[in-house]
Design goal:
Chain lengths: ~160, ~160, ~400, ~400
Amino acid sequence: MPVYSEKVMDHFMHPRNVGEIENADGVGEVGNPVCGDMMTFYIKVKDNRLEDVKYKTFGCGAAIAVSSMVSEMAKGATIEEAQKITPESVAKMLEGLPKQKFHCSNLGAQALNKAIDDYLAKTGKLKADPAKCCPFCDHEDSENDPVCQQGCPVNQPEIKSP
Amino acid sequence: MPVYSEKVMDHFMHPRNVGEIENADGVGEVGNPVCGDMMTFYIKVKDNRLEDVKYKTFGCGAAIAVSSMVSEMAKGATIEEAQKITPESVAKMLEGLPKQKFHCSNLGAQALNKAIDDYLAKTGKLKADPAKCCPFCDHEDSENDPVCQQGCPVNQPEIKSP
Amino acid sequence: MTHVYLDHSAAAPLLPEVREAMTPYLDRDFGNPLSLHDWGDAPRDALEEARAQTAALIGAGSPEEIIFTSSGTESNNFAVKGLSLAQQKKGKHIVISAIEHFSVMNSVKFMQNLGYEISEVPVDKNGFVDPEDVKKAIRPDTVLVSIMHANGEVGTIQPLAEISKITKEKKIVFHTDAVATCGTIPVNVKELGVDALSLAGNPFYGPKGSAALWVRRGVRILPLLDGGIQEGGRRAGTEDIAAIIGLGKAAEIALRDLVDRGQKLTQIRDLLINGLPSKIPRVVVTGDLKKRLPGHASFCVEFIEGEGMLMLLNSQGVAVSSGSSCTSRALKASHVLLAMGYNHEIAQGSLLFTMGIQNKPEDIDYVLNVMPPIVDRLREMSPVYSKFVKAPKGGQGNAGI
Amino acid sequence: MTHVYLDHSAAAPLLPEVREAMTPYLDRDFGNPLSLHDWGDAPRDALEEARAQTAALIGAGSPEEIIFTSSGTESNNFAVKGLSLAQQKKGKHIVISAIEHFSVMNSVKFMQNLGYEISEVPVDKNGFVDPEDVKKAIRPDTVLVSIMHANGEVGTIQPLAEISKITKEKKIVFHTDAVATCGTIPVNVKELGVDALSLAGNPFYGPKGSAALWVRRGVRILPLLDGGIQEGGRRAGTEDIAAIIGLGKAAEIALRDLVDRGQKLTQIRDLLINGLPSKIPRVVVTGDLKKRLPGHASFCVEFIEGEGMLMLLNSQGVAVSSGSSCTSRALKASHVLLAMGYNHEIAQGSLLFTMGIQNKPEDIDYVLNVMPPIVDRLREMSPVYSKFVKAPKGGQGNAGI
Ligand SMILES: Cc1ncc(COP(=O)(O)O)c(C=O)c1O
Ligand SMILES: Cc1ncc(COP(=O)(O)O)c(C=O)c1O
């Protein structure tokens, strides 16, 4: 079985709505190269609806598919509808994402929301949390996890150079 | 390749001179079941020669072949010649012994010497060292040995029962 | 010449179906399951199928609880070291039985060198651990109890479900070495109540180099092999896919055939267990007569040593093992037999017959025919036997126990 | 569709001769080499022959210095942990390079948890360790220096013979992870001057599950797998004979064909190393151009991330690896590239082509044809690239180093 679902592969191979919007009403950028993935979303708003949604993405296959799916889900939606898009709903529409991709590559909803917040701020409204990306994941680190976390740098002692 | 040389197998399958000698001139017993191997050698001496040599052996294939070979080497030899039989010369005559068998199963020369000492003592002479058998070997434990000795009980800490 | 292989605990042949299942992964599907390109797909699927098959064999809650390793020994090292080290803060005391396999024995000795304390629970003359003794051995700083499911030398099957009542009550991690039982008798981790379990593929006709450790979800363990992300980061190193596939297939077949195999092997086993002592005087069956592995018959033949019997049996085409001194590194009698109360002399005469699904009752007839002259011959040579014969009647009882 | 496999460092196919050599040990000769009966003879002989073949590949003084293991990872864990623990009384300090494989990296981290201190020697922009830095890192309590022979991600071959002058002078045990070099370039333990060396079979077309640690006679090591007496008590567990035989056979063939293979693979490699940067702007070759593994071509493609390229190459039938974040557990850029001075952004765009003896120059032509549109397409989507394009000319140099 391939790592990615058919849906993910479809969006990766044929990403929808790639690009930038000149004079966008809102722009949202999340991630950074340390984290591994970066997305910039652009929105055009008309009558409280996302008339157009575009993005640029630096990142793995999942990140690209996520961006594409988010753009499709958001395009034509009302601001309120678009704000309800979550990493979970995106993953679901993509017919699942590999566990280790869920955290870090699933930044699309966040980037979209940041673009919406940007638009709201410009027109006067709410402030968003700064993008928070787990730089270590690949593995959920919960109390109930049966797995040793030794391999995860977050739990590793630092090695000093001489 | 079989573990044992053809010569060892021959002596194991067809051991020479097995048995006891009634009213032997000398009897030598070495080893004990803790150690794994036991041999009792019986000798009959006439005109300073080992007129007859017999033995009984409790032990592995090597121990039996060693006893048989020692009895052959000793039979008809003078006391002095028989005293020169060593574990090394026995192993050589047997076309080699597996490393881990060399220490513990190669008690034949010792048992023979003990029988000779017994005879000498009865007629008036030298005293022998008590039989010394390495109960742990299977592996030489020398300083230069590249091998960790962890597996060897001699280097293991004791485990206490609760 | 007649050839009778009765040493399945040392090595068992691959099942043809297992061999076939492995073949593609030695040839066409050589890829790495971690690869993101197409070459990774087949091995990845196969790996996960094998995980599910292995989980099913032991009734595991989820395939992800299975971690593939390279041998029963590795699984035992991983369990003993990894489960203890993961609980360093809780304490440094481990409880084992006196008859564990060397891979558990020497792993706890390694932990001892790291400052851990070990308690060894005794066994009775049939090789059983008394759950009460486990209870007594547990201390507030105990982090691990490791007691094998069945012993490979004497075949005795331990009352794990009773022991696990105690470990559950005291909330102590309970590992069992089930290398000798998995695929041979029904093993269900829920019924046994254990938290971790070692198994290996070869005992049920899977390939060498295939084994697994099952660790219940929620139980923490540190890796023994540190490195990459294979096996969810719990066991690093490129997977030996062919071996793993073979393990999975063998597990699937074992689960299907478990009852049939067990019945057949128990019958053959009992032919020997009943036959040998009736043909040869002063032969002791070691281990329990009822709660023992099917296909497992172990004896001590008094007054002689095991290797000699083994070699003479070999000259008649019969392959067996001996737990006696000369076959192991330490030239000492088996720690298992000594712990069961046998003296060194008796313990040196141990002989182990392990039967497989290809054995037939005629194989046992053959053994029963060739054995008596072999024993006679060695007894004739034995100084211990001559002493016994010469001793005044009644002066020596059963020297065994 | 065209199929071009260029991911030999992830997995390589078995040589037919190797496959053939293994076959009897999966079938007829299934016995245990420790068995004293006839069934043990063939596997025992084969085991020792494989040991001699493996020893010959690396110019070892004696076959007994070879200890078979189950993976390069196990060999590295065994070396780092076993060599340090055997010298506990001398000290608790270990020196490694900053670009070691995870199996060394995470093994020293394990030792750190046991109270050891670790010094990491840096590398230059081509990935070389400076022997002077090793000298500086050594302390009176240093017990082990572990520096890899060649790095699997960037292919750089380290000056081990120079480093060993220092370790010899200071009488410190020197281990090298030669998993990427053994069987691929000439490796001679005497010329390298090392005391212990890890190797694995798959990189030279041997089976998965086959590997070894060589430890010079006289150097003490504690087992990683405690238990029985296999491998002279240094590595317990029933031997995977088929895998070991495969390793021996592959070693024999590699030794015979080493020079031919090296020449051929170097040629093909250079087609790609020279071709890719000339076809695509802002592509950096990582590692050294001369002192690098034959058949190893690694790049960073600026402004985009590796996995996307890998997947699009796969859609064109080409299998490669990426050292980029998403392919490993930690979603971080490769520690190797970062240690060489690349920034995170560049390091995320890494791509690794590893060629095998079946590859032909036409395979590289194909790659050189399909790569440019793939890169263009991903750059078109990349916010990093748009920023670069929009930036005032000259404002950004080579963002790489
Ligand atoms: C340099 C190096 N060391 C160690 C390893 C680990 O080897 P294995 O996957 O056999 O555990 C690799 C694997 O590619 C490697 O390239
Ligand atoms: C009970 C038990 N545990 C562990 C082992 C070791 O298994 P392996 O030889 O696969 O390392 C054995 C081997 O026979 C065994 O019988």
